Amino acid sequence: MSKAASATLDTHVSKRKILSLTAVRRLVQVGMLGVMGQWSFYGIFRCPFVVPYVSCENCPVITCHGRLLSMFWGFWLLLPVSVILFGRAFCGWACPGGFVNQVLGKVAPVKLRVKNLLARCGEAGPYLALLAAAVVFFYLGQPRSNVPIRTGQFFESVRLTFEHAGMLWLVRSFIVLGFLVLGLVVANLWCRFVCPTGGVLEALKRFSIFKFHMTSACNDCNKCLRVCEMGTRPGEANCTNCGDCHDVCPVDAIRFGRKRAS
Q: What is 245-260 written as a DSSP string?
C-alpha cells in the first residue's frame, strides 16, 4: 500500500474514532440535560438567591429539581468525587450549561483555539467569578433577592420573577444571559472564561487520578488544541477530559489514565 493511501486510511480510521467518542459524549450530555436541565434553567431564571444552586435546602421553590439533586442525590458530594477521579470531566460530559454553550459555539465565528495573550489572561476569569460569588455568599450573606414565583406556567413565572426581582439578582441574571449570547460570537466563552463552577473544578483537577495527558512523544504540532472546544491541550488549563483530542495526534502522544511521574 502506498504512503498516500495509508495516510488516507489512517485519516478515515481516526475520523471514525473521533465521531464514535464524540457521539458517546453527546449522548451522555443529552441524557444529563434531561436529568439536570430543569435545575439549570431554574437556577438562571427562577432561583431566588443571587448565587444559585448552593442554597437548595433553604429554597421555597419546591418544584425546583435542584432540591432533588442536591438534597437527595447528594450532587454536591458526587461532584468533588468525580473531580478526584476524572478531573473536569463533569464540564465536558455532564454539565447542561456546558452542552448548551458547546452547541452555540458551533456557529460562533471566533473559536479562539490558540494560546495567545487574550486566551491566557481569560483563564483567570473563572477565578474572578468565583471570588465574586464568594463575596455575595459569605460577605453579603447569600441574599434572597427576588420573590419566588411558584404558580402558573414556567415562562409566565420567569416573566413575573424578572418583574419583581431585586437589582442584585437582575444584575447577576443579565450578566449570565449576556455571556450566553456572546457565546454565539466567541465559542464556549462562558465555560472557558467566566464559569465559577469551572474555576472550582479547575483548581481541584490537579489532584485527579485519571486524565488525558501528553507523553514525551508530543512534538507541539497543536492539532489537539485546534479540535478542542475549550481551546486547550490535554492536561493543561481548561482541559475537561472530553477526549476529542485523543485520535487526532499524528504521533500518538495522547494517553488516558494515570500519568506516570517523569
A: TTTT-TT--EEEEPPP
Question: What residues contact residue 69 under an 8 Å CB cut-off, 6+ apart?
Answer: 36, 39, 56, 75
The residue ranges of DSSP E strands in the chain, in sequence order, are 211-214, 254-257
> pLDDT tens for residues 62-100?
767 666 666 666 677 788 889 999 999 999 999 999 999
Least confident of 43-57, 199-213, 237-251: 43-57
Beta carbons within 10 angstroms of residue 174's beta carbon: 11
Cell triple for residue 23? Answer: 457521539
Query: Whole-structure pTM over 0.90, yes or no?
Result: no
Provide the pLDDT for residue 7.
44
Residue from 238, 142, 158 nearest 190 by CA: 238
Secondary structure letter of residue 147 according to DSSP: P
